[in-house]
Amino acid sequence: MRRVSAEELLALRRRVLRADNPESSVEDPRDAEAASRHFGGFLGPRVVASASWFSSLAPVSPELRSYQLRYMAIDLDVQGRGYGGLVVDAALKELRSLGVEQVWANARDSALGFYVATGWCVVAGSEHLSHETQLPHTVIFRHLSDATPSGAGGG
User: What's the CATH code of the domain at 53?
Assistant: First the structure.
């Protein structure tokens, strides 16, 4: 797990999150901002995990310094092997060192089990369809004062 450029993650984002559709957007306007953080997990030279983090006002506890997680993706053939927890742990370690107090995301409902098992909280009543994918999502958050690493839940 290491910091990478957003460009290194685009192919994985497209493959996993957009069903490899070349017409779908997999870029965020904030990708190149200096405050943005991108993390990749590698199996040999291949990127198998991605997580991008953007400084953002959170819908929960907006007074806290927060970052939004977007484009969390684990390659299909390695899902369930712990890469998700590892890539999140690497990011949270760095974000804590920057003074970030909270992280949040619009999580795909199909991934809520992972997030809850790794210490994230679901915002009740926040269920919605993503305008990009038309898939069900729910707002989640995590305060970084939590001592439990993300991978502790087996993620």
Answer: 3.40.630.30
